[in-house]
């Protein structure tokens, strides 16, 4: 997972988070916080958030292909990456089998439309005796949603946190910017105060006479390696991201 800073210039220019800060750094760890305001409601924002194949940078994956990323929907689930089998049959058709997998993080708290929390050490931190807590907090604002991301890392690292903390900070703000691009940034949002969506007041008679909301459409098979994993229900009503195929690299890249 290399740190491809040149490739991050355009995403940062298009959807720069409203707040970006390396909050704290010590010999024992560090904390970063970023936020971005998007033009979608909290439910649609959450649906995209838990579909990393549509916004996570492929250059910060282990296989070099974002389509291999997936996230389960419940606590105890996995933010993982499939390592596909590159072998083919005699007719030249790729074998849809699984060679391996990588766990990026584990889901510990899910409140759809409001909060998602995961624990784990991303990228090169995985090989050190450290752990991290990554929290996405979704707050409704006028015209969209404010997404606040906090990543707190602590433990023992053989190389120390002096150099890695700023690098992680750069990558995390870029990932959040890509999420903002996928959803559509809310132009001119700035640091406007949060506003809860207005809810019409119904009388008892009106409430009882109202029709139930239609069920959301069922997810369609993606046709990718993600179909090998059960309990993977990405929101296919959102636009698919790019799917540049990539081979597994011999050396891991940064985040």
Automatic annotation (TrEMBL):
Keywords: Signal
Disordered as annotated region, ranges: 188-255
Range of residues in the leader sequence: 1-20
InterPro entries: Polyketide_cyclase/dehydratase, START-like_dom_sf
Transmembrane domains' residue ranges: none
Biased composition range(s): Basic and acidic residues: 246-255
Protein name in UniProt: Polyketide cyclase/dehydrase/lipid transport protein
Keyword Nucleus: no
This protein's record includes keyword rRNA-binding: no
């Amino acid at each position: 997972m290399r740190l491809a800073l040149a490739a991050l210039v355009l995403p940062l220019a298009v959807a720069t988070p409203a707040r970006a800060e390396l909050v704290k750094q010590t010999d024992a760890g560090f904390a970063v916080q970023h936020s971005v305001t998007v033009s979608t409601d909290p439910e649609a924002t959450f649906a995209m958030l838990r579909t990393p194949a549509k916004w996570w940078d492929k250059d910060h994956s282990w296989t070099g292909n974002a389509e291999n990323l997936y996230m389960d929907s419940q606590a105890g689930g996995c933010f993982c990456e499939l390592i596909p089998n590159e072998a083919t049959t005699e007719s030249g058709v790729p074998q849809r089998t699984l060679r391996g997998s990588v766990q990026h993080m584990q889901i510990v708290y899910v409140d759809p439309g409001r909060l998602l929390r995961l624990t784990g050490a991303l990228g090169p931190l995985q090989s050190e005796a450290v752990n991290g807590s990554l929290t996405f907090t979704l707050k409704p604002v006028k015209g969209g949603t404010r997404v606040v991301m906090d990543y707190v890392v602590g433990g023992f690292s053989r190389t120390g946190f002096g150099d890695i903390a700023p690098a992680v900070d750069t990558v995390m703000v870029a990932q959040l910017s890509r999420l903002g691009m996928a959803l559509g940034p809310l132009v001119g949002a700035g640091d406007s105060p949060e506003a809860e969506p207005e809810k019409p007041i119904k009388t008892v008679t009106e409430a009882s006479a109202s029709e139930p909301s239609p069920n959301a459409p069922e997810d369609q098979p993606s046709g990718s390696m993600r179909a090998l994993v059960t309990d993977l229900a990405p929101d296919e009503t959102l636009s698919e991201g790019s799917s540049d195929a990539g081979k597994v690299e011999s050396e891991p890249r940064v985040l």
